[in-house]
Amino acid sequence: MKAFVLDRYAKQGALRHAELPAPDLRDDEVLVAVHAAGVNLLDAKIRSGEFKLILPYAMPLVLGHDLAGVVVRVGPRVQQFQPGDEVYARADDFRIGTFAELIAVKESSLALKPRGLTMEQAASIPLVGLTAWQALVEKAQLKQGQKVFIQAGSGGVGTFAIQLAKHLGATVATTASAGNAALVHSLGADVVIDYKTQDFEEVLRDYDVVLHSQDGKALAKSLRVLKPGGRLISISGPPDPEFGQAIRAPGFVRLVMRLLSAGTRRRAKARGVGYSFLFMRAHGAQLQEITRLVEAGAIRPVIDKVFPFSATNDALAYVEAGRAKGKVVIRWCEPAGRRTSFFTRRQSPPNLPSVPPVPLEIFMKIENAVVLITGANRGIGLAFARELLARGARKVYAGARDPATLTPQPGVQALRLDVNNPADVAAAAAAAPDVTLVINNAGIAQPGGFMDADSEEVARRIFDTNFFAVLRVSKAFAPILAANGGGALLNVLSVVSWVNGGELAAYSASKSAAWSLTNALRHELAAQKTQVLGLHMAYVDTDLTRGFDVPKSSPEQIVQRALDGLAAGADEVLADELTQHVKLSMTATRPSYLPQPA
Fold it and tell me: Structurally, what CATH architecture does the domain formed by 128-277 represent?
């Protein structure tokens, strides 16, 4: 199997790409094919030798703690999992190694992957999710109405811990830069302190819990913002005697821990507050609880960047630089048949040799992006504008036939844009020469079948907006995207790209045509390094579905999944379970697009 290997401790040393035998499988373990792996600061610290007293690993060592993938084989004592299951985990200490094709994971540390998450999203969760859970639920026993201070809110642990604390009913304060304030507010932070211009000790008083992740100076200040009886839980040290006992450290190591934490424990006791150190551990049952929260929509993963497996060293360097907002993930370029739940990727079909190859590694970075959105005045378009700004987009051009219908937002520039008017499209391209991402969202629908008397007129009108306008905008902005480094094009499509039951006949046909257009543009724009993504969804709670009494996704859910897919280099995002089911059924004996037996 392919893997990235650490041969010796070295600060900022490169991991070696190697071919290794598959790991041995113990009776209580599950062999998992890794589809994606989270990258953590812990990996960099182990590489540099900072944890060799606590975790004395033998070399060579495969790093990596987080994973999401598919079960390949199970040990004879395993009962909960079987081959083919999609799973995720934080690998146990001394059994780590997710920067590889395969890993053996203890059954007790594994959980089924949350439904609706991609492999990349799932791989971003285990270490930070379990850290937040063990700090806030297990150690702090955080309760509704309490106040918690979570340091570094835009980081991997911070973005998860904020959401968990809000779910538990707490008031949340955090630190972040001004540029990340919108992100942490969107996750639920009530108080955001700009660490570059403010001192949190001067703002916060009488907090019940502090989740500490910074340096010793911040630790001393954090003790002073707690009320009597409060608790400080540190994930950055110093380790305390209780931790040394829990990991059964040798006597001299426990003595070192006692000495290192003596001053902090003494100051905490003097103020009547508690101090404890947390080094999170693998725990499948707690992951299952986290899964329930994710599937219920209480918590969403936040991903900054996805790297290909070949760039594992680059991913580690990016994390170590401390610039990440949320999590960093590495993924495998998946061969045919190896799929994530929401995203699909490029492959070269053996029965279509005439289809030209497309570069695989095209990723759109949303931070500092300049975005044009058509139909931005409501529904999915409005949700795109808000989420893009929350994720750090520099500017959003919001296009609408009537700019007066647009919701004013900081960072949004209104554009008069009737996508059916070539003059408007040309004027928009001239007014927005800095665009790096185009979202073709504008669309119309009208109920009716092809046998209706006015079906030809209706079809022409719908195709004008849903197909020809998408083509018109794409052609106008393709040169701009090329001039700005390639960028990306996101076309909002539909599950009815593949199913047409006659109720929305012209709309379905137009979306089928737009899907085909999207596939063609992906090939035609590959040479200029433009990522092209098709977003498919079923029922969304917008004006279009107002009369349908069916379960619906929110525009915000759809947009979050679309942008996660864009950042992951996806070709398509299948944004809900119904859409996934329909797409998968295309190869069934009786696919969904055919009339089904009563």
Answer: 3-Layer(aba) Sandwich (3.40)
